[in-house]
Amino acid sequence: MSYEFDFADVFAAWPELLQGLMNSLVLSALAMVIGMVVSVAGALGKTSGPKWLRWIIDEYIELIRNTPFLIQIFMIYFGLPSMGLKMSSNTAALLALVVNVGAYGIEIIRAGIESIQKGQIEAGKSLGMRPLQIFRYIILKPAIQAIYPSLTSQFILLMLNTSVCSAIAASELTAVAGDIQSRTFRSFEVYFVVTCMYLGLSVFFWSVFAAIERAFLRKPTR
Amino acid sequence: MRTIGSGDLIYIIMAVRWTLLLSLVAFLGGALGGALVALARSGEYKWLRIASAGYIKVFQGTPLLMQLFLAFFVPGLFGWSVDPWMAAALGLSLHASAFLGEIWRGAIEVVPRGQWEAATSLGLRYWPKMVLVIAPQAVRIAIPPTIGFLVQLIKGTSLASIIGFVELTRAAQIINNATFRPFTIFALVALVYYVICRPLSAYSKRMEQKLLVAAR
Fold it and tell me: Which of A98, A100, A90, A88 is nearest to A61 (CA)?
């Protein structure tokens, strides 16, 4: 192997890399929170909305799930302005991520709602619990417990998807990597370091999700 | 800037063959790698289990786009030059190996312990046991998630456009740069992906329902 590694130029750009990392982190976290709201609303619409609404939600889910994220982001950033809807690349990135994760989140949340057996709710009623208590103690926690693994792995996929937002020059980690690469020509070094940073982000989110599970979702010990 | 003509549309539609070919190569490569990963992951050797678990974690914890960039630049370190086609095929195959490996490990481990023990007590060695007893049962469970991942993989090939491989998405960008009709062009491309992926998704979902009913 005659290649000489040179990480000096890459490490010299650490303030940029750190900024990119923070931007990716913020973008992911924002999309997770907003995506969660969209998912819950969509799941409620799908389980108890009128028929036409269910149809729209179903079509939205199928459309998003069966097209690439890259095309979705192009549609939003390049396609919508021709209909008079213009936005910055960062806004477009956030919107695309939310629209994308919503299509997966709705099905996950719906599965959670449907995992609660009717008898459980009836048992709560016959114990004299109020509707809010039934929701809080009987529906919410077991539902979240049931879907927590699929929800969190969807969130990790969302975070990894933020790298695609570099295609419309949103200011996140992969875009920063592209800048540094075009300046220093240390392609392998840049992408190796940035890949490690993404792995770090994944580990970070994995541990945050595990900590939340330990703190709030521990199953009762028998 | 010029208007969009039927030649442009044909150029885009014809590029779908590269998307399909890349998907096929990546799926076959991923199936081969995934089988090895799944066997290593559920096998008897501890170091193989740890190594394959690490492989899965790394590929599931980093963006596919980064994997494609590295597949493009790493061979250069050894003095091998790869074109975007080879890099995309290599990167997507390694990516698919990790995901299929994890899916198939799950399917192997769902086969009840009694089946393993029965096979062993019949005097079957590792390979006959795997091929004759475990695999036929695991395959049934593995089909729906495998097709589901194939959809992810087909969509993932769109990222090969970023490392410069001319498939469906890149063809659309090229035509868009010349005609600047982004809405029409990307909507058309979205429709092409949809037509390819939707039947696969529906099939995967139907098979899953069937298994759920059978398990009851």
Answer: A100
Segment A68-97, tens digit of pLDDT: 999 999 999 999 988 888 899 999 999 999
A200 in a structural domain:
yes
What is the span of the domain harbouring residue B140? 6-215
B63: domain CATH number? Answer: 1.10.3720.10
Suggest the residue from B62, B176, B177 to mutate for an interface test with chain A (most A CBs closer than 10 A): B62
Question: Considering CB atoms only, which of A161, A188, A198 is closest to B74?
Answer: A188
A1: pLDDT strictly greater than 70: no
Give the residue on B whose Cα is nearest the Cα of A62.
Answer: B198
Residue of B nearest to A5 (CA): B77
User: Within a domain: residue B69?
Assistant: yes
Kindly indicate whether the ipTM for this predicted assembly is greater than 0.95, answering yes or no: no
A91 interfaces chain B, CB cutoff of 8 Å: no
Domain count, chain A: 1
The domain of A190 spans: 8-216
> For A209-217, what is the mean pLDDT?
89
The CATH number covering residue A124 comes to 1.10.3720.10
Question: A20: exposed, middle or buried (C-beta count within 10 Å: 0-12, 13-18, 19+)?
Answer: buried
Provide the chain B residues 134-153 that lie in CB contact (below 8 A) with chain A. Answer: 151
> What digits encode the pLDDT tens for the residues B83-96?
999 999 999 999 99
Residues 6+ apart with CB under 8 A from A191: A177, A181, B66, B69, B70, B73
